[in-house]
Automatic annotation (TrEMBL), chains A, B, C, D:
Alphabetical list of CDD domains matching this protein: ACT_F4HF-DF
Residue span, ACT domain: 5-82
UniProt xrefs under PANTHER family: FORMYLTETRAHYDROFOLATE DEFORMYLASE, FORMYLTETRAHYDROFOLATE DEFORMYLASE 2, MITOCHONDRIAL
Catalysed conversion reaction: (6R)-10-formyltetrahydrofolate + H2O = (6S)-5,6,7,8-tetrahydrofolate + formate + H(+)
Function in brief: Catalyzes the hydrolysis of 10-formyltetrahydrofolate (formyl-FH4) to formate and tetrahydrofolate (FH4).
Keywords: Hydrolase, One-carbon metabolism, Purine biosynthesis
Lineage: Bacteria, Pseudomonadati, Pseudomonadota, Gammaproteobacteria, Alteromonadales
Record's protein name: Formyltetrahydrofolate deformylase
Length: 277, 277, 277, 277
């Protein structure tokens, strides 16, 4: 008995759920959990089906392809840990949170490597026995630096890149290598405080709540599809530094919940938004 | 085109989702939203299907009855407002919140009547043009009082009774008249502080969070299936009275979210628990 | 024995708390609660002192004025209900929430009148026995309309104006009549989604949390000092209309918590921010 | 210039704040922040004063002792990291969270040693360079085991013991060694689900919110003064195991917020409650 996830995405039409679940039934697969969504604007259908049974992948996918309309996408995923590379700069809290959650079994990820544009976090990586690559941006043009990063990252063939407080803006060329596969944690409640120094901006505006946003990276700065957001209350006693410190827990929570969704194959990208099934 | 909700509950077996959604498809019904749950302990299957189309109720239900295993329950509900009777004592906040949400369109309920064992809230009912029945318990035995309540309530034929801070304990005889159809708001985070004066108990224990619990009433005091719970942070500055005041918003939120689930036909009772689909 | 609030604001210097509390002690006043804040940026000192005793207002204030540095502000407030005028357009939920909280004793306000630029909410005002003035903006220039509003409002001599979903932008001339005395509820988590249709903007951006902001109105649209913010989680299932509906509870909570702070004399305005003591 | 915390606790009387702040003023100390609380039930006064200046400890404390009524307690604390010993069993998440927060600077603690009644977490302690003492309870009576623990702990002279998922019940004899200095994380929203297997209990009761409670340990099981509580929403999809997993983040948050209060000298114990200033 195996446990698998079937993801289906196609234009909506009557009878889709019946067709797909019928095929599962013919294959003697038990549906553990089934969630779907139809976007009323675009008429796009999304379904995530947790299946249990004995899988004949080829004939199952063939049956699905015959039944589904043209332009459909479907994938049948096993529940093995996804391979990721984590990019960092100097701040330890997001990286440390991921490392510890993987360590204690709360998060199922295969962290192939950690790549930093500063050397500070090498020691933390080493404590957890994960290769650390220090790829300084000093003296390099943006494009040169990204080429250096890609050269280090590519051999690991990661499914996802996680930007765990990686404080460099990535160019469209870099992003195109990992479309909808780069997850960033932005230290504000987007779209508030786009850009640099969001805690300073939040302090100056006198907000009573701060937030953090985990999102896929696309070509527009801080404009990619949002996966998860979290917030915390602050008050007049908080300096910009206090907000930044309080924001750490918010950032960790938003990023690790987003990663949890990713590890469970629950995230569909839908234009500039996500559907979390 | 009509919009309906199909609720199905039966022992789980392979192919159930396929069977039910096939029948919907044959009836040319479009599935707007479908959520299901299988309880791993009992193997019971629960499904809620939002359908759109032209309904032939008789043949649809007949087709379902043929397909479903013995012991199944299914119902096909229209989205008309549910008729309720609200029971109160003296406190206005939960009643007022429901009245105002129905007034502004946030909550869809047909409030047939309000029944109180004190006269205080008659005037509020009158402001909203709803009949108020004052049924005092003074000088009556518990059973006599309940008979008097039932006599007033029964002619309205309500689908649900809402206990909006009704401060009387109902006997099993009364409850048996409306099985899983009486919704109570209890002013604590159950199962903490069962029984009387929960805010006083919370104050004495020095908790840092208070809560409220909306639940179906059954024969055991404060032991019925929980529909929704909400909490709020408190601190040492809160007296028992302050907690009670802060608790009002929590009570209103828990009760009105529970009622929202009820109005959307999302609540299954499952032993001593609820499944909210 | 009376219960009063002393508010003090002045440039910080050593010994301020000692000086002020000494004066209270000499007047045989008991300090029930004392909270203070010094802004590290501006060096401004803020203190709120809850006092109990027999008050000789004139000599107490005289003693304080002698002790405090030039440029100080102090006020000794009784705990009587503040007189307010509420401005509305068509949406009932914020107005209804305030009316019901005042009715059930959760909020202590003296609502002198309700003024609407549409007639819809007259009937709700009437249910609660509060004068409603319908001041249409139809056919009037912005300035003419504001003059008409002021003419209706001014005789009530309100301490605060509450914009409970009043959907008109006020000019600096109007705002100047009630500086830091107009409280607005904005239906977004400011500074995200400034301006019109914030729920539509939030929907299009695909946010996972929506918010509302209660703030003082100043000359800059949606830029006034924030008093309180509240949020709620949403997901891909929410249309812009669903977000708007879910946002109602958030708006009510942010506005009524802000009003609670106001009724307790806890809000200082400090440049473009608030200090809530 | 030093930064110190003055804690004062005594029976309330008029003029206390004035007296204490006067003494600070005479010592040319600047008050950065002052918070106080008077318990209306017991009439006990609590004050926490953050001071900045040049301290002459002896004369300052002498002046305070002269001014304060008999039975007063006062302490003048420097802001050095508190020395703690952490007790664990097998679960890594709370220990890991503390280690990582101390590592990244979010929490200021001097972790002198980690003591476990199982060997599993030795390796994690070693990664962070902290001595781990494995003190098995196998084959020992409860009292013998506690003696063995004390023998290992005592030489470190810790200010606090942190029970980071230490799954042994401590006897009054042990607790008496560290009165109000042992902090436990209980995996439920106390007083709900006292005792063993709270997540199983929560699952069986069908709650919609789970919680965790950080509290001081006293002689009564799970009855000590509560320092902090946190909660998270769950639903019917959660098995007892899922609740336990979801509870990890709640436990970490409650414990680390409680520890943050401790490191800032903000916690007074007041009978069976805490006052957090």
């Amino acid at each position: 008995m195996e446990h698998r996830i079937l993801l289906t995405e196609c234009p909506d039409s009557k009878g889709l759920i019946a067709q797909i679940t019928n095929i599962c039934y013919k294959h003697q697969l038990n549906i553990i959990r089934n969630t779907e969504y139809v976007d009323p604007g675009t008429g796009q259908f999304y379904m995530r089906t947790e299946l249990e049974g004995i899988f004949n992948d080829n004939t199952l996918l063939l049956d699905l392809d015959r039944a589904l309309p043209p332009g459909s996408r479907r994938s049948l995923l096993s529940r093995s840990a996804k391979k990721v590379v984590i990019l960092v700069t100097k701040e330890a809290h997001c990286l440390g949170d991921i490392l510890m959650k993987v360590y204690d079994g709360s998060l199922t990820l295969d962290i192939a490597a950690i790549v930093g544009n500063h050397p500070e976090l090498a020691e933390l990586a080493q404590r957890f026995g994960i290769p650390y690559h220090y790829v300084s941006h000093q003296g390099l043009g943006r494009s040169e630096h990204e080429q250096a990063l890609l050269k280090v990252i590519a051999p690991y063939q990661p499914e996802y890149l996680i930007l765990a407080k990686f404080m460099r803006i990535l160019t469209p060329d870099f992003v195109a290598q990992y479309p909808n596969r780069i997850i960033n944690i932005h230290h504000s409640f987007l779209p508030a405080f786009i850009g640099a120094k969001p805690y300073q901006q939040a302090f100056e505006r006198g907000v009573k709540i701060i937030g953090a946003t985990a999102h896929f990276v696309n070509d527009q700065l801080d404009e990619g599809p949002i996966i998860q957001q979290k917030v915390a209350a602050v008050d007049h006693n908080y300096s910009a530094e206090d907000m930044e410190k309080a924001g750490r827990d918010v950032e960790k929570a938003a990023l690790s919940e987003a990663l949890q969704f990713i590890t469970e194959d629950r995230v569909f990208v839908h234009g500039n938004k996500t559907v979390i099934l």
